Amino acid sequence: MNQPFAYIHPEAKIAHNVVVEPFSTIYQDVEIGEGTWIGPNVTIMPGARIGKNCKIFPGAVISAVPQDLKFAGEKTTAHIGDNTVIRECVTVNRGTVDRQRTVVGSNCLLMAYVHVAHDCVIGDNCILANSVQVAGHVEIGDYAIVGGSSAVHQFVKVGPHAMISGGSLIRKDVPPFVKAGREPLSYSGINSIGLRRRGFSDQKISEIQQLYRLLFLGGLNNNEALDKIELELAPSPERDEVVNFVRQSGRGVIKGYTRHNSSAD
């Protein structure tokens, strides 16, 4: 475990078969689970909680203090789930008094130069492609994919199984199961390929498509559309998840695509 030229604070809790490559620094109040590989020139700062079988590549910085002027030195943490891969120069800041922690789930892939700010919660099996920038207090659901060089506004929520085009400016909430693209960011259909890969039946995908036809393409405002969905579509976990997501949205959800909200027209 103790490689030449790596510094590991004696109070850090490192599982016996963790590999720490040269020139990496691990501070106190750090916990790292079994089978994890810490590449060269990685910095793991106080408050990091890293799971089992993770891979953290050169230049990454985990659990640095938040880039938030309200941060007053409170004791907070940054959690990385099992089997997550963190590529070169990724930064994951720890939490503030708001949530006390930043969380990246299990089986995630954060590609090179991703930034995850304080108090974010990223679910399991998520992919953030190269240079995605995630501001504070963002929530990203399980199996969501965010394309490269996208920027996520603070407090935004991205629903599970959503797929967002590269280069997007994500200013509003993106509901579950959808594809989103264009500028301004808009509904672009159902993430049907991703859903099939995760075991959703054709019938279930068709039900989700009908739900979003009513929400985005029916000419109704959100409240009217949600009432119609609850009246006309049978209850299901997916229906209820979408309805609750839209009703509880703090920033408002993206719109359905029309020629009127396309900057290209």
TrEMBL record:
NCBIfam families named among the record's database cross-references: lipid_A_lpxA (TIGR01852), PRK05289.1 (NF003657)
Protein name: Acyl-ACP--UDP-N-acetylglucosamine O-acyltransferase
Parts of the chain that traverse the membrane: none
Gene: lpxA
Principal EC category: transferase
Organism from which the protein derives: Hymenobacter citatus
EC number: 2.3.1.129
GO MF terms held by the record: acyl-[acyl-carrier-protein]-UDP-N-acetylglucosamine O-acyltransferase activity
Pfam family, one: Hexapep
Chain ranges of the UDP N-acetylglucosamine O-acyltransferase C-terminal domain: 173-254
